[in-house]
Task: structure prediction
Amino acid sequence: MSHTFFITDVFAEASYAGNQLGTLLDAADIATGDMQKIAREFNFAETTFITGGSLELGFDVRIFTPKSELPFAGHPTLGTAFLIRNEILQADISELTLNLGVGNIPVSFSDDGVPWMKQKPPTFGNTVSKEKIADELGLQTSDIDPRYPVLPVSTGLEFLMVPVNSYGALKAARVIDGKLSDGYFVFCKGGYNDDQSIQARMFASALGVAEDPATGSANGCLAAYLVEYEYLGSNDVEVIVGQGYEIDRPSQLYLKASKFDAVYDIRVGGKVRVVAEGKWRADP
Result:
């Protein structure tokens, strides 16, 4: 039995940018092991499988990297929601829900059709020494921004937040051993263009992704970090992040976040471009 698939570019201001996503529609009959093989065949950072659901109950979606299944990831959430709205429902709805491993994730659509996901409340881990993270990333301790902590943050998937104090340090960063985290999110103030205020890179070789072009889940963690430590001088932020430029996949991620009375509101949005549609013909 063949399955319709789409390839989308997520967090892409134009086609052939952003983060690539493979999505199979009507995938309820595909076994877990075959989903993993298909994800490895695509060999994108993530591939999604829509296995059922409805507008009323939410849509059941599974997410796979080339190596393993994930309970949550950002660009797969937005890209899949975009396809559900435009290809399955074919309706200009303002909101739908994805039922993921981490739970229910609501996705809303702005007037121009851009999807926004609301992420789970963040959790913050223990601080990592600047000496350790500098060694791990092949940097000098002085490259790590002394004003802010290095620590893991999760809104469903954990990333180690690493603030550096210059683009030179960001560009030089690389993961040496991968002992401190499965995912390293390195960032600094600045932009690759005039719209952006933060530059970022994400490394996750443990998940089969040497460097990710655009990471919605990690940027949700970043949004929580920005308001928790008032990185931009406020606990209420609206900012554009640039990512993926070092690997020739320029991406723009839109972040809105606030924290009032210990209640967080974390939202990540970005444009989605459909670049291919076809039939997956391999037998399970």
